[in-house]
Design brief:
Elements: E1 22-27, E2 34-46, E3 50-60, E4 67-68, E5 74-75, E6 77-86, E7 89-99, E8 112-120, E9 124-134, E10 142-150, E11 158-159, E12 163-170, E13 178-179, E14 182-186, E15 191-192, E16 198-206, H1 208-212, E17 217-226, E18 237-243, E19 247-255, E20 262-271, E21 277-287, H2 296-300, H3 315-324, H4 331-340, H5 346-360, H6 365-383, H7 394-402, E22 407-411, E23 420-427, E24 433-440, E25 450-454, H8 465-470, H9 492-497
Parallel strand pairs: 15-21
Antiparallel strand pairs: 1-2, 2-3, 3-8, 4-5, 6-7, 6-9, 9-10, 11-16, 12-14, 12-16, 13-14, 16-19, 17-18, 17-20, 20-21, 22-23, 23-24, 24-25
Helix pairs in contact: 3-5, 5-6, 6-7
Amino acid sequence: MKKKYTSVGCKIIIWIFIFFLFLINETFAKENKRLNAFLSYTTFSSPETGPYIETYLTVEGTSVNYVKNENDKFQATIQVIFLFRKDAEIINYDKYELNSPLLDDTLAINFNFIDQQRYSLDSGNYEFEIQIWDKNNKGKPFVNIQPLLIDFPADKISVSGIQLVSSYEKTIEPGIFSKNGFDIVPYIFTFYPEKINKITFYSEIYRTEEMLGAGQKYLISYYLIPVGQEKPLSKYVSYKKETTARVNILFSEFNISELPSGNYYIVVEAKDQQNNLIALNRAFFMRSNPGIQLKIDDINQLDVTNTFVSGIGNRDTLMEFIRFLEPISTEQEKSFASVHLNSSDLWTMQKFFYKFWTDRNEIGPEKAWINYLTEVNKVNYAYSTQIQKGFETDRGRTYLKYGPPNAISESYNEPATYPYEIWHYYVLRDGQRNKKFIFYTKDVVTNDFALLHSDVTGEISNYRWQYMLYQRVDPGFDIDQGATRDPWGGNSKKYFDLPR
């Protein structure tokens, strides 16, 4: 059953927990139209009515078919089905139609149209199924299934998810986009191209008054940090002193015109008066900014005399060590290494190597490097192929970037699938929980397992991964199907759900 809400003032506690983006590209036969729709969702909670999920669907106006209605106007219609399952039981669902604006003609379409829906769900783990298709076309629906977590602890301070914002203005007449005096239009994507020079975000902190006491002071800090690093970027750190309340609001932005290309998190933290971390949340985003690069001048100002890198005097050895860094490097570091280091002198290479490790551990860069080199040697031994060293393979990169998995399910002899491995991480270094990687190979003798699917933010996501495994016996599978079951003798779904 669908349950509607109105977001007015502070009466609604907005809890944005997961930000998810997928691009729906469904090809249709009629007029060769291709439906381009973008979906994001967030989870919220209201003190009065409990938790719910809010979905945002944007449809590209030029990608749909328009037909005339009884008023002699053109209109497109998108059909949508949402299903929320918990332990194979449908807990909530909806089927509805999204109509485009009415048009006099379809010769100059230059708009997208957006829809928002809300659904009541209790805390827990769900399977969220989305089906979407153009009503005026005979193509099959696009079907996608995603895991969904709704988590609202009643006995802890918590930071809401971080909503990325496209635009906002003061509320004149409250509506479904209204939050605490503003009409906030979400930024549905996690990608920020070069032409966008700021990142705006909204978040809330909950239960500080209940847990710390009325009238108490505490600190909110928020910053940007590259994925895989532990140190925030000094240019992108801000603070806000707050007094405890039922809900505290953080609505801010960073100028990212000089932020290099790469993968990042926006992090929001709450700390008490003793500087103890009491709550934290983060949101992933990707930045493309090719005009900002690490420059030789940024390296040359460093002095590496009497540091651990000054003892690495062989250029070929140091070049190999720098190649080892690629799995944990930022895009800017990868670009610099690719462009400059093959032609640079030993001194420049030493400075780059030293900067790399001081950026990650300013107090103990040498120890950090030695610990990492130990892990590189492990993956080179375990995952090397005839043409690649272990650190260059998908499994090696994953191991070095995320650490050893908590469990590995290996299946090399199932009758209907290619050999595969499923890696399960209970908690990643960046806080993501219950994450998995699926690797497969068409020839186990080569030891070359490619990454097929992962539910980790920023990694390859292919929720039809089982079909790829089954191509061994069924090369003509229908990619328009939804979920699939394991064939006889298959264990891939069982191992994915419950890794051994």
